[in-house]
Amino acid sequence: MKVTVSRKAHFNAAHRLYRKDWSMEKNDLVFGKCNNPNYHGHNYELIVSVTGEIDQETGFVMDVKILSDLIKEHIENAFDHKNLNVDVPDFADLNPTAENIAVVIWNKLRNHIKTALDLEVVLYETPRNFVTYKGN
């Protein structure tokens, strides 16, 4: 019997979508206003879900307090009120699109969650735009 437990989190961050190896004109064509050289920000909503068998001893798939602490330590502390392009080393050579941010978050958390448990990250960049990553 598999069950999914989820934890919702929030962080605010700025970013700029662009490629250093492209001209400003090509960046503008592909990324539009998101290529603003002065950056722009989002109020990101994050949902991290863990799916697995219920532990018969504890009754948990995973202790949600532990999941909350992992998100706080590895995601919120690293991303909140940061410029992703400038302040977060994961994006030094990676365009901080919502898709790439979700994958980075998944990778940061995966090492801290039992491999027998499935991990899913849903990242809302706006209330209507979101991405989901479940690993490869």
Automatic annotation (TrEMBL):
Catalytic residues of the enzyme: C34 (proton acceptor), H81 (charge relay system), E125 (charge relay system)
A biological process from GO: tRNA queuosine(34) biosynthetic process
Enzyme class (EC, first level): lyase
Binding sites annotated in the UniProt record for Zn(2+): H15, H40, H42
Swiss-Prot/TrEMBL cofactor(s): Zn(2+)
Cofactor details (free text): Binds 1 zinc ion per subunit.
Assigned keywords, A-Z: Lyase, Metal-binding, Queuosine biosynthesis, Zinc
Molecular functions per Gene Ontology: 6-carboxytetrahydropterin synthase activity; metal ion binding
Reactions catalysed according to its record: 7,8-dihydroneopterin 3'-triphosphate + H2O = 6-carboxy-5,6,7,8-tetrahydropterin + triphosphate + acetaldehyde + 2 H(+)
UniProt EC number: 4.-.-.-
UniProt pathway annotation: Purine metabolism; 7-cyano-7-deazaguanine biosynthesis
Domain of life: Bacteria
Pfam hit, one: PTPS
Family per record: Belongs to the PTPS family. QueD subfamily.
Record-given protein name: 6-carboxy-5,6,7,8-tetrahydropterin synthase
